[in-house]
Structure formats: structure tokens, C-alpha cells
Predict the 3D structure of the following.
Amino acid sequence: MDRRLLLAIALMVLVVFVPSLLWPPTPQPPQAEGPDSLGVVDTGTSVGSAVEAPPTLGPAPVEPPVARRPEDRVSDSLPERMVVVESPLYRYEFSTRGGRLARATLRDFRSFAPADSGPAQLIPPESRFLALGYVVGADTVQLGDFAFAPDADTVHVGPDGGTLQLRGRVGSRDVELRYRFQPDTYRFDIEGEVIGGLEGVLTVGLGPRLRSIDADTVTDIRSYGVVTKARRTERLNFRSLDPGERRELTGPFEWVAIKSKYFVQAVLAIEESSPQFGGAVALGGPKPGKFESAVDVTASLPVADGRFHLSAFVGPQDNRRLKRIGHDFDDVNPYGWIMRPIIRPVVDYAILPVLFWMHERLSIGYGWVLILFGILVRLLLWPLNQKAMRSSTAMQAIQPELKDIQERYKSEPQKLQQEMLKLYKEHGVNPLGGCLPMLIPMPVLFALFFVFANTIEFRGVSFLWLPDLARADPYYIIPIVMGASMFLLSWIGQRNMPPNPQTKMMMYIMPGMFTFLFLNFSSGLNLYYAVSNISSLPQQWLISRERARRLATRGKG
């Protein structure tokens, strides 16, 4: 049992602490706009700097350059306007300067950032999300340099959806943008057309980041990253880029996303008839500010006949919603890190479906769901635990005979092994019988760690005195209860056992170590583990009584 617990601690330390030690958060400044890497003439009013399309795309066919006349560009006489799109889920605000998304307010989620309350607003002021541009030969035109006229000031997305249309004149060409929305999803479609046709590359801005709207700002910013999907998903953490470092991401990509801990904004090219993103470029931002993290990301999409079609997503990392989009978009939420092959199936097919089902069908809060789930897991494992406890009891009962054999045959390894196997057979003992069943709950425990670290359904959910099941208990009550229940479980397990100084020492050390280890883990994880330990006490008590009866019978014989 001691080795089993030490193994559990080693795995937990590996999973939880090593990434934080290897990649500590580095301070960064507010995002500063860098120079135009494509040499686009600065109009003084550009929404964001352009980033060069990846060389992997190859040069686009040269068309007559789109001329840019000063009178066509945004100026003080053409102020920026916001067009509002409202649905039951969100309120999006689009700028008339090129159609970028300037604000995204999610009605079903709150901001927990200090001095920031109310509905969650994901887009920072400096965002370039959906800042569109055309690369034609050696010329680059940012649509944000031009004013567009909307067909309505407000779009209400009803049961049949809603459409926003923007029209503008870019040089000598008319350009139309259409955004199509549905009321029950955070995904929307974007169609664009240059009247008269155009061959080239469309650039789509995603950076520099999402707003941090969680109480634990440091953990939120540590989660910032770029995720791309080609044959498989690849992640690039913001902190891995030095200031000014340029990283080319080679496509083709089905989607490119920027994520925080709980939210994501992405562009997707997943329609069968649409070309995929040829690549993307990530440019590291300066980092002297406090815990800031920003990366300017631009994805590139081939354009034929002046037309393009893509989708965008701005919303929560809701596992079920992301799965419905398909194309492994749910993989933007990284359950498991290096243990993904083990953790992800447990999360996707066992833990989350059961927790969601209990919450929705039984109409109870997630705190009570975790209590019932902890009891349920222990009931399901009762037969295995019974076998493990009895095997452990039998092993400890034959320890004097086993020690005697080891002394007698310590210089004869082969004879020692034969006599030990003979002893196990006489007493019907399986030396591994007490270990393996006890390890079965560990994948559930590790999986729950990642569930509470990444699942938005638990964000901000309170229970009794706990303000947020996804964060640590501010009063450390639950970790202490967990440690106390672990000690009580070990104490009952040692009753009526032969004296063993090592086992007695571990009975005191292990609960203390686990309590310290779990102090700053999510209160939901601590709640589950405490309930699991308390639910095991009756079974441990019954095994202890059974052991006492056997010892009494043996003494009479």
C-alpha cells in the first residue's frame, strides 16, 4: 500500500507541478503595435499591422493592383461605427472599418475579473479578430483602412437566423461582406466578394489575445495559446514566443484558434467546397507588463474569383458545443497534457457524461452531483476494494512466516522464490491482489483534476461556503477534511494488525503530504476525494472487524 500511495504522489507531482516549473509565467507589457512587415503604406488610421503570408503558400497570381486613394481611406470625416448583432446567446459588435469584430459579449457567462462585473466580454480594445486583408502579388490591402456601409445598425438573430451585410469601395473595386448568424450557436459564417473578381490570398487576423475575465488571472494567462488543426491538433503557447519572434505555422489547416483557459476565438475553413487555410504566422509581442501575454496571429486563405467563405467562433470552450462543430474542434480544450491518451477517454466517455446527466436529470447543483458521484464510484468499486483489503490483510498476516523464509534462504534466490510462492499458495494469497484494485480510482482522480481545470460548466459554480468549485477552498476546510478522512481510513485499516513501524509512520505522513498537495487544488476535486474517502470508511471498518474475528479464532485454535 505504501508503494501505491508513493506512486500516486509521483504521478500527481509530474502532471501538476512540472509544467509550471518548466514554463513559469513571464511579465509582459500591454500590446504595442509593431511595424508593418509587408511595407503597406501607413495611412495613420490602420486598425492593425499586417503580417506577411507564409512562404508555403507561394506567390499569388498577379492581378492589377487594388489602388488605394486617400479619399477612400478611413479619416476623421468617416468615423468608425459599431453594428450590433444580438441573439439569446451573445451580443457581437462589428466595426464598419473592414468588418472586424470589436466586442463579443456572452450573455450566459459572467466576468469575475477584479473591478469587472456583468456579462463576459471577450474582445480587448486592440484586437484584430477578423481584420481582413487581400494580398495580390506584391501589394497588400487591409480592409480596415476603408469604411464600409452596413445594411442595418442592429441585427436581431431570430429562430431563422440573421444576416449582416457590409458594402464598401476599396480602391477601384466594390467589396461586399456578409455575416450569417444562428440563434443557438456561437459559430457564424462569413462570405466576401470583390466585384469583378480577384486572385490572391485573404489574410485573417486573430490576435493579439482574449480578455482575461477570470478571478485567477495568472492561471488564465498561462493558458493563452494558438491551436491549429491539420491532420492533428498542434498547440503553441504564447509564452514560448520571445518579443518580436516570428513563428510560421505551416498548413493546410481546417481551423486556427486563440484560446484562454475557458474561452476561444477561431476561424474555420471546414466546408467541403472551401479551400483550407494555407498557413498562419504568429508574432510574439513585447512582454514587460505584468502577466500580459499577446501574440499577433494572421491566417491565410487562398481566394479565387474574388470570393471567399469561412466561419468564425467566439465563445466558451463548452465541450458539447465544440463537439457538434466536428473536425476535432473540441480538441482545442487540452484535457490531460502528457497523459492525454489515458485521461481524454475517461473524461469524454465516463466522467463528463455522468456528471452532466446527473446535473440535468436530477436537477441538482454540481456540488451535490460530486457528492453522489463520489459515493457511486465507491459503490461500484466495492467488490474490488473488498478483495484488495482482504488480500492486504492476508499478506500482513503471513509477514512473520515470510520474514523467516527470507532470512533462511537469503543466500539462495531461487530457493527463496520457490518457498515464497509455496507460502502464498498455502494461504491463498495473491501478492498483487491488494495493489491493482486500489489503483483503479486513480485515473478518475487525475481525470477530475483536468475536468476542474478546463471545464467551463464548473466555472463560478458555488456550493455551501465554496464560492467556486473550479478554484481552491479559500478557508482550506475541504482539503483538511480530505486529509483527516485519509488518516482515519488508514488508522482503521491498521487496527488488529501486527506492529509495523514503517506502516505506522506512513499512516501519519501520507495524509499530511496529500493535504499539503491538495491545498490549492480546486475545491471540487477535494470535495470528490473527501467524499470518496468517507464512503470507504464503512467497508474498511467491516474488514477490520473481519480481521479481528479471524485473529480471535486463530488464537483459540
Remarks:
- Confidence is low (pLDDT under 50) at residues 1-9, 13-77.
- Residues 2-17+341-381+440-556 form one domain.
- The first helix runs from residue 2 to 22.
- Residues 409 and 416 are 5 Å apart (CA to CA).
